[in-house]
Amino acid sequence: MGGLLRFAGVVDGISRFFSWIAAWLVLLSCLISAGNAASRYLFSLSSNAWLEIQWQMFSGIFLLGAAHVLKLNEHVRVDLLYGGASPRRKLWIDVIGLPLFLFPSMAVMAWFAWEFFLTSFHSGEHSSNAGGLLFWPVKLLLPVGLVLVLLQGVAELIKRIAALRERREDLIVEYERPLQ
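^ that's the sequence the OP posted. Answer follows.
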């Protein structure tokens, strides 16, 4: 189990690295947005590329940060079974739910997203807007983000199995229930 836990630690580090990139994309997107608005209102200058790069960065923020959100147990979940369960039962719900729901959905979506990216890459697809950007770089984020979530799911499964086997209660299975 030690080797698997080391693998999980490596995946945690990869997720943390991509979340760091996602966090910087938030700042960069805000700066571009402010700069674009200022240039438009102060100098009557604007570019479709500046507008498009903002939504492309938003895609990066979401897709590159999703695995770390899963690692932190901050992801959206159905509270029906999980919310009132004991920590041990929450571990079991995750051990059953990850391979049953997360793994197949991420694998299928990543497979189709890879084809989606390849089609765009091979055709050199770009925006139809004047001065628009290429689409394939942002489309590459889709399979990358889905594979990152899949890998993080494997890491979470390993950690939960280890916690169940060793009867550890130090693994964080709590999450903050959203305000409703």
